[in-house]
Predict the structure.
Amino acid sequence: MDIEQLIETDVLVVGGTVAGCSAAISAARMGARVVILEPTSSVGGTTTNGVHCFDTGTVQALSGVTEEFINRVRAHYRDIGLDDPMLRSKSDVFWEFHVAERMWRDMLGEHERITLINGAVAVGVKMRGNREIAEVHWEQAIDPIGSLADEPPGPPNVIRPLQVIDASYEGDVTAWAGVPFDIGREARTPEEPHAGVIFTTTHERDITEGGFLPGSILPGSTGEGDDAIISFTCRMSLRYRHEGFEDFLLGSPPEDYDPARYKWAPPKGLIEGGGAFGTSLQPSIRGKMLTNQRYFGDDRLEGNRDYILSHPRQRTAIRKSFMNHALGFLHYIQTDGGMPQMGLSDDEFVENANMPRSPYVREGRRFHAPVRLKERDVTAYLASPGPRPPLRPDSIAIGDWAVESRRCKDEPDPETGVFDGSMFIRTLRAPYQVPMGCLLPEGVDNLSVTTTISATHIAFCTLRVEAVWAQTGAAAGCAAGIAVAGRLALADVPLGRIQSELLAQRYKLVYFSDVESDHPSFAGIQWLALRGYLPEMDARFRFFPDNTATWRDFVQAAVLAFGLPISVTGIHFDTVDPSDPAFRSVETLYDTASRAGVALFPNMRHPSIDAPADHLLPEPRQRWLTLALEEPVSGGEAIGFLQKLRRAIGSDETVEPPNGLPEKTALTRAELAELLHIFAAPPDAGPF
């Protein structure tokens, strides 16, 4: 085959999305050479093409590259002296699209090993055998939105990578590599009570006359599976202009304009520059507003499935239909809607007539992988009593968005007027974890995915935000970097090494609202939590790192940190009742030590027994030891205990305790986590 241009690289990232940028930065930090193929003229995915925040439930859930990004955004606006109400939000961080793009380009440009190619559209792959991508072929786009010529202009450009990361929203490269995928909705099961056909009032905040309470599943929710996916959109950036608005009128309607598709009710306060969050428009920086009207607005269902499943060469017309639909909404606002003052922002998307360069692809392919996330994995109360889902030791990312789905059908229920599939279940929002196994597509040894990961439709409805994709991208980048350095298949890269690298790059793998990524004990706390240790099930998801560590904390954390199998042979502690949650941890430590002949607790070998008192008991007493679970544990006590415990498990290696640890005073929980990380973690294996 003739080749127009040949590039060889360690890591190829397909898609300059947030996930793609994050993956490239993580891999480059590990020494890998990286090439990014981005079909459009922009970079940053939806964060520079219609979504002006990370869509996170709390800023504390952001970490790694997202924290670096928002710090740069804040610094930019601070440096230019902008004081905007949107910049004072406590729930998320907001930006203008051209500012966000500058931030992403700056962050990528700081790494000499990263090469970004804009206007590069992947068109095919060549496999090496059945399990490895040898080449990815691409062509140059003919416009800013990633369109291709009707016919190939000549031989393709070729990239030969060692590792491939598909960070696109469509997942073409992964599909061409032969990986099976799901698209559409699964049927309802006990693990997924909101799957399939469903009508809800989860968007409502008020009780409607004759209707159900907010947060209700309505009649007609059969739970049947189908091939429907949620609506796409083109999120326009608009301004309300009191004067000079005539220059921003669309003039003529776009192709296929039909006013019956739209409705418009100006939000209260819009003329004063207010906007209304989450209904028709979302307020943004500098008085800009983003279209966000779910029904009879900028959202569109027609063509979304075809867009995903088409070859990039056939996507141009579908992509333009989404843009025309959004422009039709603006034309309606300016005409029948009675608000000609509303027009496109003239400083956004300047090379594409002030329209986003790509549609907002909310859902598409979901590729098969060793692990498949379900609703029970990403929401509270199904697999645990709450407030968070069960902890996962294989976590490489966290999310905290609610299950949010746009409509899956265009016709509302005739009885209730509710659209099938449209829901936003705020009650279920809780920090959850994403496992590495979701990112490794079946059957291909040098490929990972970041945005088309293995999940059901319902799970995907909370995964599908950029805050999550930034983290899955980083995990894919770390895994690729390790694989390149060790010439490994991705499946052979130790999970512990990926997690250790992510922690080194300040990514959160377990969410705690009171432990930021710059906390001095961040890595130790994260490591201990991955082993299953939570101080308590706190409704605000806190670790309380500065609280005094008690012997209760210590014994429970030690069993988890060393991975000791639970073992209970007797009742040896006079002060620990068998109903106490710490009972099995204390007895497990006793059994571990006695089995090895190590006196881990005082008085284990030669108990002092009050013989007369014992003689008077109806049965021989077994409880001879004392342990005050609520008492603080000092640094010296903890170190001595851990040295003995290491001997009990057969470890001859000497461990040096950290400098500056208070030997005579009580440890904090943060110090306890660090100490256990040092004494229990294998020296080179990372967390596991």
About this structure: The first strand starts at residue 5 and ends at 14.
